[in-house]
Every structure is written in C-alpha cells, then in structure tokens.
Amino acid sequence: MGLKLFLSDLHIGDGSANDDFVYDIELMKLLNQLKDADDHFEIILIGDGLEFLESDAVRKMGLMHFSDVCNSMGEDVLIPIIEKHRSLFDFIRRIAKTNKIHYVIGNHDYYLIANEALRNSLINFMDSKNFEIISHFYDEENGIFAQHGSQYDLMYAFTISKSGKIIPPLGDYVTRYTMESFEPILRSANLPVEVVRDYDNIRPTMHAVNWLEYINTIYKVPVDLVGEWIRSFLMAFKTNEFEGWIHSRFPHAYWLGEMFFRSPGLFEIGRKISNFAEQIQRFRNTNYLKSKAEKLLNAYHMPDWKLGMKDIVGYSEKVPEIDYSKLKMILFGHNHLPGFYIIPTPMGTKYYVNTGTWRPLVEKSLGKWGQIIFHKKIELNYAIIKNDGGDMNLETHLVNRVMLN
C-alpha cells in the first residue's frame, strides 16, 4: 500500500478577506518529510482543499442562483488562488509528476464538479495523470473510504424533491448572502483586521451572535452588529431559495421552519434551542459524522446503512460499490473538528477519523466567573496510513498553535 496522507479543509484562497491559509511553508515541509519517508506516497485531500465559495470572484457575482454561479465559474476564480500561493502550487505540481494526488470535492470547492471549464483548468495546471478530481476516495484492498462529509450536513447536503429535481444546499446560498449583506457592515465597524477575519472561523456558526456580543463588549462597536447579523439571516430565509429548500427538505413540517426562521423573536428562541441541543450532543460525545461512520462500518450486518443515492446526490450519479465486509476505516472532514475513534463491530475493531482543518478556529468557552469568552487556535491536522512490514498503521497528527498574550 505504501504511505497515504489524508488531510482536508485547507481552504487555500485568493488572498481576499476570507483567505486564512498562511501555511504554505508548513505544508511543503510536511510533504518533503513524507517524500523522504516514502518516495511514492499518495496525497488524499478530503474536500475544501481550495476556497472557491468565499472567493472574491464569487463575492462579485452577487446573489445569483446556485446553478448560475456554477455556470459562471472560470479561470478568474482559480488563477488568483494559484498566484497568491504560487510556490506551494508549483511544489505540488512537481510532486504530482511522480506521486498520486486524489482531490476529493467538498462544499467550498464543489464548483469543480459543476463546471467543466474550471475543473479542466485545475487539471491542466497540474499537468499530470497522477492528479484526479473525484467525489470520494475508496481503497478496496485496504478497506478505506473517505468523503468530505458535507453530504451529511443538513445545511450543505443536496436534496431531491418529490418531482426528482435536485435542490442545491441552502448553506451555499446563506454564505453568499451574508458575504454581501452582513460582512460589509462588519468591515465598516473599524475593528482590527484580524478580528474581522475571526468572524468567518467561528464554530459552530450559531455562536456568531455570542461572538458579536463579546466583540462589542471589548471594542465598544457603535453598530448593532447582533441586530444586523440576525436581520441578514432572516432576510436570507425569506428568499425563494430558502422557500424551495425547506419545502423539499421538510415537506410535511416546512411551516414550522418558516415560522421560526422568519420571526426575529422565534429565531432567537430557535438559536437557544440549537445551542442547548449542541451542549447535549457534546455531553453525549456524539456527532452526525461519527454516527454516519459507525453506520457505514456496520453496514455489512445492517444493509439499510449502506450508502444510497441520498448520500451522493449532487456529487455523483452512481452509488459507490463498497465491499462492506472488508471496510476498516472511514475518514471525513468538513466540520473542522479533528477526531480519532475506535468503532467496535461484530467484524472486529474498526476506525473513524476526522481530518479537521488547517483553518483557524474561534470557539466559545466560559471564563472563571461563568462569563462567555472566545479563544482562537490554529490546528494543522492530518492523518497518515502506512504499511509497516505488512501491517497497516494509522497515525493522526494534531498541531495546535495559539498566540500568547
């Protein structure tokens, strides 16, 4: 098998406001180290390697329909990213001459699937048969399956309506909507540049309200950022895109979602319910990607848990043919939360890995007196699977960085 490097959510961007990737040298060092260990190692990028969704080119397109955004893509989206990180891209292109690179699509670089010209631009730049763009990665011989994971996120999954129409993910539209409606207001508040950048890295997103309140307390912002943020979201949820999405997603209970999302008072109640549910989920130490991985790893005994069309809609027209009896490991990215889990099954021990991100994370915590505070950390996460004397070994790596005050 050799050595395989799995990493995801690099979000390498064009240098505009939402490009936080400044780890070109670190990534090149890592790749050099692996090449020294195994000259023919493989790279598997599990989605969101490149940042298209929050690029300056997409921002300038405005609030087009999802299909129009996909069709409008061209080299003007890719070239600024390459030029901003020229040394890194040239380095990776040299590696691709001798090493396989499997580029799995995520939700921030999804346009590579939808737009052939954009896809060909990246393939032509790499100029190697070793480079491929794929919807998922499957190594049948070693029982490894990897997807980005956005397919199982309510906001970023595609939906099939009753009529068979594919409904695009609401998260893509809401991201573009807030880029146009709220982010200019945030940038006008005379906050430090690094603080403004932090807004896009809050996890989970619903903690943005707490973060804005926190920032207002520190910097005495003269703008009602919380009110503007809620207004922006509520306006997004009054559009035709939201209407089509919620009717398709919740055909029998869409009215309840409309009621919560379209009323400021009920939206606030919904946010608190969401935060409470999240705390319960953390207490139980569960998450939706881990739950999906557990089902796939046990699908040999539970056929209903095998991948179906709903798991690949929008990304592929054919369900992957997987030998579930030999499946040993699932890898996801997407939620930027790295993890390594041992999954017991009737077929023996199996594994789930989340490869995390190389993007900064801004997370909420409680101070000594119970007050809400936010901290920022940088994680450079990846996983390595290698063959050591005939045995397959898994290593997960997490590098934490914080700015010491």
Describe the structure.
This protein is an alpha/beta fold and 405 residues long. 40% of the residues lie in helices and 20% in strands. The strands form three sheets. Strands 1, 2, 3, 4, 12, 13 and 14 form a seven-stranded mixed β-sheet that branches. A five-stranded mixed β-sheet has the order 5-6-9-11-10, with helices on one face. The longest helix is centred in the last third of the chain and has 21 residues. The termini are far apart.
Descriptive keywords:
405 residues, alpha/beta, seven-stranded mixed sheet, five-stranded mixed sheet, 16 helices, 14 strands, 40% helix, globular
Helix-strand blueprint:
Elements lengths: L2 E5 L16 H14 L4 E5 L9 H6 L4 H7 L2 H10 L1 H11 L4 E4 L6 H4 L1 H11 L4 E4 L2 E3 L4 E3 L12 E2 L5 E2 L2 H12 L1 H5 L5 H6 L9 H12 L5 H12 L3 H10 L4 H9 L1 H21 L3 H10 L31 E4 L6 E7 L2 E7 L6 E6 L5 E17 L2 E11 L4
Parallel strand pairs: 1-2, 2-3, 3-4, 6-9, 9-11
Antiparallel strand pairs: 1-13, 5-6, 7-8, 10-11, 12-13, 13-14
Helix pairs in contact: 1-5, 8-12, 11-12, 14-15
